[in-house]
Design goal:
554 residues; alpha/beta; Gyrase A, domain 2; Isoleucyl-tRNA Synthetase, Domain 1; 50% helix; flat; RNA-binding
RNA sequence: GCGCCUGUAGCUCAGCUGGAUAGAGCAACGGACUUCUAAUCCGUGGGCCGAGAGUUCGAAUCCCUCCAGGCGCACCA
């Protein structure tokens, strides 16, 4: 709808320029938007003011010229007004809004599905936590944000893959194996001091226990180095399986798990460094190899091969991103914890050295979660093993409330997550507010069925009966659903959906309290049943993108 | 010291990439269940948009300088 108005304005301005009514000017970049104040029309445009500054004329005069020459081939305008400093306000015919009821009913779960992406290949990489311990609350936010961004892009016509990068190569994995070995010995009665830099969490004991159960004490007699390698592999495998299970129960399913280790095994890193060296991006200071990231705006160059001959994480990461591009992705989205922001210029430099456009790699920072319980901070420290796991959050507050809570804020704003509030089934918890609207509609439709009221077809209702202000507003906001989705997808901002849902649910609850849907008036009942059914469709489509359930009953 | 993010109602946050009189939820206060679900609704109060200068028809939004909080500044990942 917004696009229709924009096109209509653009066509009019072009006509006016061609007819000499407006002194020659470029067709400006202009805004068509929904005004804050509904008294300013359904849509408003600032063209006249933009043109005014270009050609130095009174914006209201220009607006008047545009207004009197408006072309409206589809006859959707009720009236237009010139207001304020020179806004053009457009009021649309009610039939336009009523017509969206039919569109929604016809398209059902397709309503809001767009093809702005043109099937372009996109990869979203997220979570990517080291398999050295279970996922905790901090990973959960990134998991939901990544998942919903992927859903959004999918629904707007991109071909999306979700990928998890397994950092299974560094020395933190070696520490994991070591930690398990210590617990293993401990459980088998050997006394030893547990080293500082090892993982303290109870899950390490569980892994050791598991090994004892399956293979007994045979590792006590074996070579330590080899045992650590074995335990690393076993523990990594077990923990990764747990991570996958947690994510699955959180509603997050990945298409690929990409192993850093395989990158080395296939010599991706070595080949990459070789080719970058030929292009002059790599130099040696005699002991280490440096990447000239300053060539692309990084504040200093970065080491890619250490003194001891081992490539750094950064080297592997460039190779990884080269691999991504080689798989044909046109847009690559990485979701990171905000504590990694210092790493951004480095990676952008890396992919530009590969000949890729900086714009093709979107780096999204998700701020850390501030975990509370009843208003008081919950202490968290990974190393000591004191942290709230994703599993505990799932058990305590459930998937829907957890996901919704993480989606209620812009991802670059800090988020307080209060376990007590998230768990409460009350008005403090917005997820229920939205779900309740869905359940209420379902309940009304069910009631209508029980009273043998046949659900009407669009041709059998008279949408002009929907004259209540709340009804008009409901139709308007539903008509804007696709625009909201497109905006959220373009900006990669999932939180816009929760705000939209809250508004739609609020309008519905208000309407519900004021009006009866099922009444003695058969025609009115039919029209209202039809409308609330379309509300239910929109609620369902939006909730589906969020990965939150839409319950028939609550 | 340098860099990134944040600063909007008592609290938690939106504000659609520069628009018109800055909005929600919670909390506070007062009302509405014999009714299609009260996990709801209706009403009332509440603001130097961190501060100061600047850009222009127009700034919470953009530029600059400060102030405050968070996070980074590895041959860790």
């Amino acid at each position: 709808m917004k696009i229709k108005i924009a096109n209509l304005v653009a066509a009019t301005v072009r006509n006016c320029i061609a007819a000499g009514l407006i002194p020659t000017a470029d067709l400006p970049y202009m805004e068509v938007e929904v005004p804050n104040n509904p008294e300013h029309g359904d849509y408003a445009s600032n063209v006249a003011m933009i043109l005014a500054s270009q050609i130095k004329k009174n914006p209201r005069q220009i607006a008047a010229v545009i207004q009197s020459n408006l072309v409206d081939p589809e006859n959707i305008l009720e009236k237009t007004e010139i207001a304020g400093p020179g806004f053009l306000n457009f009021y649309l015919k009610e039939s336009v809004w009523q017509n969206t009821l039919q569109i929604i009913e016809e398209q059902k779960e397709e309503y809001g599905r767009l093809d702005v992406g043109g099937a372009q290949k996109v990869q979203v990489e997220f979570v990517s936590a080291n398999p050295t311990g279970p996922l905790h609350i901090g990973h959960a936010r990134g998991a939901v944000v990544g998942d919903v961004i992927a859903n959004l892009l999918q629904t707007t016509g991109y071909s999306v893959d979700r990928e998890y990068y397994i950092n299974d190569a560094g020395n933190q994995m070696n520490n994991l194996g070591k930690s398990v070995l210590f617990r293993y010995r401990e459980l088998l009665g050997e006394k030893n001091e547990f080293p500082e830099n090892c993982y303290q969490g109870d899950y390490i004991k569980n892994v050791a226990q598991d090994i004892i159960k399956k293979e007994g004490d045979k590792y006590l007699a074996l070579n330590e180095e080899e045992t650590i390698r074995n335990f690393t592999a076993i523990a990594g495998e077990l923990i990764l399986t747990e991570i996958k299970n947690d994510l699955r129960d959180f509603g997050v399913i990945f298409d690929h798990y990409f192993s850093e280790k395989e990158l080395y095994e296939n010599d991706g890193v070595g080949e990459l460094l070789e080719s970058l060296k030929k292009q002059g991006f790599i130099y040696s200071d005699g002991e280490t190899l440096w990447f000239k990231t300053t060539a692309y705006g990084d504040e200093k160059d970065r080491v890619v091969v250490r003194k001891n001959g081992e490539p750094t994480y950064f080297a592997a990461d460039i190779a990884y991103h080269q691999n991504k591009y080689s798989r044909g992705y046109k847009m690559i989205i990485d979701i990171w914890g905000a504590d990694h922001h210092g790493y951004m210029p480095r990676l952008w430099a890396g992919i530009q050295a590969l000949g890729q456009d900086k714009e093709s790699l979107k780096l999204i920072l998700v701020q850390l979660v501030n975990l509370l319980r009843g208003g008081l901070p919950v202490a968290m420290s990974t190393r000591s093993g004191e942290f709230v796991t994703l599993r505990e959050v799932l058990d305590e507050v459930g998937k829907d409330a957890a996901r919704y809570n993480f989606l209620m804020r812009r991802s670059d704003s800090h988020l307080d997550f209060d376990l007590e509030v998230a768990k409460k089934q009350s008005n403090e918890n917005p997820v229920y507010y939205v779900q309740y609207a869905y359940a209420r509609i379902s309940s009304i439709l069910k009631m209508a069925g029980e009273r043998d009221i046949v659900f009407p077809a669009y041709k059998d209702i008279d949408p002009a009966l929907l004259q209540e202000p709340e009804e008009i507003n409901l139709m308007k906001i539903m008509a804007r659903y696709p625009e909201m989705i497109e905006g959220a997808a373009r900006a990669l901002e999932p939180h816009r959906i929760t705000f939209y849902l809250n508004e739609l649910a609020s309008l519905f609850h208000s309407y519900y309290n004021k009006n009866k849907v099922i009444s003695d008036n058969e025609k009115l009942t039919a029209a209202r049943l039809f409308m609330i059914s379309t509300i239910r469709i929109v609620l369902q489509n939006a909730l589906k993108i969020l990965g939150v359930n839409a319950p028939e009953k609550m």
